[in-house]
Amino acid sequence: MTTFPLDKLSLRTQVRMKVNGEPHVLLVKPWQTLLEALREELGLTGTKEGCGNGNCGCCTILMNGKTVNSCLVLAPEADGAEILTVEGLAQNGRLDPLQKAFIQYGALQCGFCTPGFLLSAKYLLQENPNPTEHQVRLAIAGNLCRCTGYDKIVRAILAVARGEVQ
Amino acid sequence: MRPFEYVAPKRLREAYAILAQADGRTVRPLAGGTDLIDQLRVGRKRADLVMDVKHIPELMRLEWGPRKGLYIGAGVPCYRVYKDPVVAQHYPAIRDGAMLVGSWQIQHRASLGGNICNAAPSADTVPPLLVYEAIAHIGGPRGEREVPLERFFTGPGQTVLAPDEILLGVRVPPPPPRSSSHYLRFIPREEMDIAVAGVASLVALDSRGVVARARIALSAVAPTPVRARDAEAVLEGQRPTPALLVEAGEKAVLATNPITDVRGSIAYRKELVKVLTRRTLSKALADLGITLE
Fold this sequence. Notes:
heterodimer; B: Uridine Diphospho-n-acetylenolpyruvylglucosamine Reductase, domain 3; four-stranded antiparallel β-sheet
């Protein structure tokens, strides 16, 4: 029978991950979420905690190219992962077209949900560059906004898809 | 969150060794974590050791063979299931169910295995598996066993799994010839909600257009997902007609034992079962070229 060195487990785990293109090695607690590690260990506070249980989507990031709620990922699970947060959207000081469109269309008020919306939108356009309005609404179903309302957000995303904001 | 240790075995036998050595510690298997991490955070479940199963190749298999049918490893996330062309072609209800679990963010993580082990009466991926008579493949240090998925659930949040056992995956037999299936749930909005009631129906027709097999399974209307055998019996051996589908819907209610809660009353849930049974049957029949509504 195989044995497993359970007594060697530690309450600190090393996690190697690439965040916004940069390699990082950090020591995390096994019960820390990826959201907490990003905010507290790496200081990337663009990713927000809203509900903390996977309903609001404020903590949405891309993990290995797919959107996830970072509040529902344990930090050690991200070992070896590539992470994109809202801080990684702008390239060489130039905002991503989605960020420009959100500004242009006034698709935010308090801004708390915006990082999550941007990453859900980024993922949508990566999967489907020409979505219909209905497809946009479905793609952001996991993101809640309680002040702007969804209309301007949907319009901003569609404007980028149509190439109107670059 | 209350502290726990984390381990990510890369082989099944390592996972079994961990379970065997648990020695009174609570080991919680982690697949997508979308239920477990929230439950740990709010204290609804506790863990001494969280065992991430996503590095075990056997649990990440999604395989199909025309004779063996489909095998869905317990850690396979929903998106892989519903984006799989084989699932869409041969098991439409399974695709339907996997597409309804949470948001895209959730679907990128949440597994069918986790949805099964969480054992919510409202689990959207379960009725579709029940209509295909899926079998739960269970393993642990004392060996492996198979249990019909229908007998896997023993109550809300309760399953037949022993503390040293994990779900490895589900085996789904090949679909019957000339068959189709669908799953629908009712929620008061378009997405991101928990079923008030859900119904999966499978219909297979023989060469004369008579129902050779009917399978109907329900969610959120009993302490566990359930088959509606009286409704199935009404359909088998008959030629489908609108009146027959109405009768099947009425009989499906006999399998329910719903509660009244914030999502809906007993009476409302029973009414939904009638309507959803009829609609899923019509949808499956339409796939087979028979339009009744």
